[in-house]
């Protein structure tokens, strides 16, 4: 991968079978719960991306022993809790890492200072600090709840918290704090979000109750429950699998299989939407692994039509809107994505970044405060022009999405800062090249 930039050139069909890297959400959680637990946690298939490696470093700083055994296998020996770190914790680019770790750390009598890269230092932490403050944690931070910040934990009291925004990170931070709070912590989510924290807490021996009630999903956890080290198998990340799959769908003659993809229904909104657009997307070998549904996903080149994505589907595909916008560019007619204001506070403002990048490649786009409309170019075999040099603002998914766009376009598409791709998808260029893509 060149440091100066990366370029995707249009070419022939993509064919082959690949494995997506390990799921990022599950990888972060396996490190954090492994460090909170007593005893040994063996992890297989960990995503060895920069984000998760930052979380691994943080867990060492909080007192766990963390060892790489090679080939995605890791051993975490937890001390049954966190001790005070001796230095600043740098979470790199990882919003999930810092927010979940702050939640977990809040339960212990310690002070910890967190920072991150330019993108992470610009992202709102108030959404996590507010509930942690209500439970008894305190902090000092930059204006607007920005990093760096110092959090002081310990002496927490459980509470019931209704999520103001659909965020699995906030839910998880509150639940992890609740592990060491007096009483029963409850999180109410009006719209269910990914439930990996709940599932994994159970795998570590904690009791978590989930009930769907009239006002949303209630997740309850009693404080003071011990966690015991366990074995975790990390499935392939559907958010990463999305890139080779959409590449196959938009490139004539292609057929690509991504093996072992996590198919938790709270993560599969993109696959549902692509099927509604007419994509030939099938699941083979559906099975259960480590308490999660997984399967091999097969994508073939397909004629797509634009759709209106139901806003309530957003939590199940929140990281996939950039690559959906790319598929939409190759569809016939407009694809309307609304209720996605959360995209503005991701690693970059993803609504703005996609609107600018697609426009630079000749795609019709309309930006709304909480939405994006992409007008597909498929009519009368009219292809996407491409040809842009896309500024990614250091956002891995913006970079990968535009590189995929370039594979079917008339002219090559280049992106700046490709190094950021390694936060979630190390080896992206090589994996795509193995399928026949011209990305260098
Ligand atoms: C994640 C939750 C989502 C998602 C992020 C991973 C998680 O963030 O965008 O990439 O692992 O809990 P929000 O909770 O902010 O929606």
Report on the structure:
- The chain has 440 residues and is α/β, with parallel strands linked by helices.
- The protein has 2 domains: 6-22 and 236-439, Enolpyruvate transferase domain (UDP-n-acetylglucosamine1-carboxyvinyl-transferase, Chain); 24-233, Enolpyruvate transferase domain (UDP-n-acetylglucosamine1-carboxyvinyl-transferase, Chain), CATH 3.65.10.
- It has helices at residues 24-36, 50-61, 95-106, 118-121, 126-135, 168-178, 196-203, 238-250, 269-276, 321-329, 350-360, 396-408, 428-434, and strands at 6-9, 15-19, 38-44, 65-70, 73-79, 89-90, 111-115, 138-142, 146-152, 156-157, 160-162, 181-182, 184-189, 208-213, 216-222, 231-233, 255-262, 280-289, 292-300, 308-309, 332-338, 364-368, 371-377, 389-390, 413-415, 438-439.
- The chain has a 4-stranded mixed beta sheet with strand order 24-25-1-26.
- Helix 1 (24-36) runs parallel beside helix 3, helix 3 (95-106) packs parallel to helix 6 (168-178) and helix 8 runs parallel beside helix 12.
- The radius of gyration is 21 Å and the shape is globular.
- Shikimate-3-phosphate is lined by residues 25, 96, 167-169, 172, 194, 318-319, 342.
Which helices and strands, and how do they pair?
Elements: E1 6-9, E2 15-19, H1 24-36, E3 38-44, H2 50-61, E4 65-70, E5 73-79, E6 89-90, H3 95-106, E7 111-115, H4 118-121, H5 126-135, E8 138-142, E9 146-152, E10 156-157, E11 160-162, H6 168-178, E12 181-182, E13 184-189, H7 196-203, E14 208-213, E15 216-222, E16 231-233, H8 238-250, E17 255-262, H9 269-276, E18 280-289, E19 292-300, E20 308-309, H10 321-329, E21 332-338, H11 350-360, E22 364-368, E23 371-377, E24 389-390, H12 396-408, E25 413-415, H13 428-434, E26 438-439
Parallel strand pairs: 2-17, 3-16, 6-7, 10-12, 11-13, 20-21, 24-25
Antiparallel strand pairs: 1-25, 1-26, 3-5, 4-5, 7-9, 8-9, 13-15, 14-15, 17-19, 18-19, 21-23, 22-23
The site of shikimate-3-phosphate has 10 residues, from helix 6.
């Amino acid at each position: 991968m060149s440091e100066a930039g990366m370029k995707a050139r249009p070419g022939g069909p993509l064919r082959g079978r690949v494995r997506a890297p390990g799921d990022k959400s599950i990888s972060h959680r396996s490190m954090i719960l492994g460090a909170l637990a007593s005893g040994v946690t063996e992890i297989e298939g960990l995503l060895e991306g920069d984000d998760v490696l930052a979380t691994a470093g943080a867990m060492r700083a909080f007192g766990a022993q963390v060892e790489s055994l090679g080939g995605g296998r890791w051993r975490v020996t937890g001390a049954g809790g966190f001790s005070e770190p001796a230095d600043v914790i740098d979470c790199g680019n990882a919003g999930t890492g810092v927010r979940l770790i702050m939640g977990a750390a809040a339960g212990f009598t310690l002070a910890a200072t967190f920072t991150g890269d330019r993108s992470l230092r610009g992202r709102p932490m108030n959404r996590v600090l507010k509930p942690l403050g209500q439970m008894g944690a305190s902090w000092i931070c930059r204006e607007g709840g920005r990093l760096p910040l110092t959090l002081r934990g310990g002496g927490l009291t459980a509470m019931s918290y209704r999520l103001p925004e659909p965020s699995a990170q906030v839910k998880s931070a509150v639940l992890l704090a609740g592990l060491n709070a007096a009483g029963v912590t409850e999180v109410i989510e009006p719209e269910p979000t990914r439930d990996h924290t709940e599932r994994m807490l159970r795998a570590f021996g904690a009791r978590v109750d989930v009930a769907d009630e009239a006002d949303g999903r209630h997740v309850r956890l009693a404080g003071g429950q011990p966690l015991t080290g366990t074995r975790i198998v990390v499935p392939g990340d559907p958010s990463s699998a999305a890139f080779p799959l959409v590449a196959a769908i938009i490139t004539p003659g292609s057929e690509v299989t991504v093996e072992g993809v996590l198919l938790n229904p709270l993560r599969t909104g993109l696959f549902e939407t692509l099927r509604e657009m007419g994509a030939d997307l099938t699941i083979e070998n559906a099975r259960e692994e480590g308490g999660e549904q997984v399967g091999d996903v097969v994508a073939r080149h397909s004629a797509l039509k634009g759709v209106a994505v139901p806003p309530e589907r957003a939590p199940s595909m929140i990281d996939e809107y950039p690559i959906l916008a790319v598929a939409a560019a190759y569809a016939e007619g407009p694809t309307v994505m609304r209720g996605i204001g959360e995209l503005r506070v991701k690693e970059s403002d993803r609504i703005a970044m996609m609107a600018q990048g697609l426009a630079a490649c000749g795609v019709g786009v309309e930006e709304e405060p909480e939405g994006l409309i992409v007008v597909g170019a498929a009519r009368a075999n009219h292809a996407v022009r491409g040809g842009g040099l896309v500024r990614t603002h250091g956002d891995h998914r913006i970079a990968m999405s535009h590189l995929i766009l370039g594979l079917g376009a008339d002219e090559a598409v280049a992106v700046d800062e490709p190094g950021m791709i390694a936060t979630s998808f190390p080896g992206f260029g090589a994996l795509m090249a193995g399928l026949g893509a011209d990305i260098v």
